[in-house]
Amino acid sequence: MRFSILTATFFSLLMLPLFSQSPNDLGPGFNVATIDKTVDPCVDFYQYACGNWLKATEIPPDQSAWASFVDLRERNLATLRGILEKASAGAQRSALDQKIGDYYGSCVDESAANRQGLGPLKPELALLAAAQDKAALVDVIAHIHLIGPNPLFNFYSSSDLHNSGQVIAYIDQGGLSLPDRDYYLKDDEKMVGLRKALSEYVTTVFTLTGQNAEQAAESAKSVLRIETELAKASMDRTARRDPKNRDHKMSRTDVAALAPNFYLDRYFKDIAAPAFTELNVSNPEFFKQVNAVLAEEPLDSLKTYVSWHLLNGAAPWLSQPFVDANFKMQQALTGQKEIRARWKRCVSLVDGGLGEALGQRYVEETFGADGKARMLKLVAALEQSLDQDIQGLEWMSPETKQQAKVKLDAIRNKIGYPDVWRDYSALKIVPGDLLGNYFRAGEFESKRQVAKIGKPLDRKEWGMTPPTVNAYYSGSYNEIVFPAGILQPPFFDKTMDDAVNFGGIGVVIGHELTHGFDDQGRKFDAQGNLRDWWTEADGKEFEKRASCIADEYSSFTAVDDLKLNGRLTLGENTADNGGARVSLMALEKILAADTTGKAGEKVDGYTPQQRFFLGFARVWCEKRRPEYQRMLVSIDPHSPGRFRTNGVMQNMPEFQKAWGCKAGQPMVSANACRVW
Ligand SMILES: [Zn+2]
């Protein structure tokens, strides 16, 4: 379980919001030119700090949103493109450059993809067509799970919730094409429209495979019907936040008995899983539903559904008509106007499949030892502040404080890039074979996951690639991780004063640390085990304070009449509030220790405290297309930038003091919430 600072990408390789040129000349870094001085900071701080940025920014046509971190991702893309072009051309290449260069080269060759049409996928479709009964279908599903697409459910390995040092197998809900269960079950106009868009997408793709109009329409009906059945048994995202709802370790025999129609032993043999006796079924009701679907649906409908998942997964890497149909669906969900340039899609593809090979070259080019040393100092300062903050809490008993300190002291940190790089030597990359490379990369990763079952947890492993502009906290590892990609402006800027950097990367560090103590993180102990280490009374006090935050954010309107889900976003909002508080505490300590008087001086006319809050807001200046906003509000645990800023400001007396705000003004909440 990982909790990141930013919105993750929901369609893995398809949707990284990237663009090579900034849509305004303000750049991604901190700049007082983004401030709109006609706005009162005590009335709407986000509008004040980002107002001129918002006026100057148009979302580029190939994007669903624009923000400083998207700008940063775009800049990284350009760097990565340079690396990949060099790697794809050289004569005397290293094995690493051969892999990343040839994968990229096979991807950017658009004319080859167009010439081949559906050709590269035909062997996979034939394998599926040859399945004579439902048992044989399970063999094909196992194979498809290995190469990438995930029809029916998700299978993976992860650490045991109660014995975090040990990796076990997981079966989890999945098998949907739309982003969430609600998309199949809700009857409002938008959801009905998106189901129609999916139905058209499926119809188009099956027509492209050679079905006539009637057959293709029938295929679409089967896909929608089966996915709706799976959606009905899927747990909603808010319920999934509670790890107890996903904690169902069972014997292999009991799991097989949940879904006798699935031939589980055959599946495990097919994927060459090591011997094991227990696994976790995150949502047993869902797996029972898989069983029911297998019983009720005729073999042909099931084959149609499974082939759809193959086609949908492969569509972005087939010929133009498939790419277009796939993008049209993406457009319906995000409002994006144009597809991203092919080279950008290809850079993302290589990052997804060979991220720690590409990442090695990226780190060599961009990441210096000084960056790591400065980050280590910042992390130490933030850990100290959070410790001080927790020890000073009036609502928490000494027993729970003691336990919290044990957990905080045990948090490890990873900065920049892994100490041990992943070994890709078993992955064969063939020049000119895009889809083959894509499936082999998928299979390499799946086999790596399967091989971990029954082994001790590899604590050196990273869950994000080095160029990623993001950061995360992992509950089972009890660690915070900052890839090299995020250690750049506006998060981290060597040329800026401490105040701006503490408002940027300082808050991000505090945010990740706080995740260890949010509504989910607090349920795990220092070793990453699901164990309640709180006294009952302290647990109740926590819940009371967390509810205040949930209610606050539930009152914010994101788009039209759509309000935020304060329970879905509770962990992130708690982390934003806690992160801001402990980062400001760390800054105040530095200011107090300064004997020269220089640290407290105004810069650009702003005090260090004011610059801290401006640096904070700068990170979250953001524009989203309404379709995309709507999608994120239903599935993203992070709040939109406006509320990530104002939601925190309203709760902080330190903010009111820095800007001279008075009771009754909008940025001064009469019912200020505080957990940490
Ligand atoms: Zn987070």
Task: Record keyword descriptors for this entry.
676 residues; alpha+beta; Neutral endopeptidase, domain 2; Collagenase (Catalytic Domain); four-stranded mixed β-sheet; 12 strands; globular; binds zinc ion
Low-confidence stretches: 8-20
Number of strands: 12
Q: What's the CATH topology label of one domain?
A: Collagenase (Catalytic Domain)
Biggest sheet character: 4 strands, mixed
Which strand order do you get reading across the main beta sheet? 1-8-9-7
CATH class of one domain, anyone? Alpha Beta
Shape: globular
Which ions, cofactors or small ligands are bound in this entry?
Answer: zinc ion
**Rg calc:** 25 Å
Instruction: Determine the structural class based on helices, strands and strand pairing.
Output: alpha+beta
**What gap, in angstroms, lies between the N and C termini?**
22 Å
**CATH-wise, what's the superfamily of one domain?**
Collagenase (Catalytic Domain)
| CATH architecture level-2 label of one domain | 3-Layer(aba) Sandwich
Instruction: Count the DSSP helices.
Output: 26
- State which percent range the strand residues make up: 5-15%
| Share of helix, binned | 40-55%
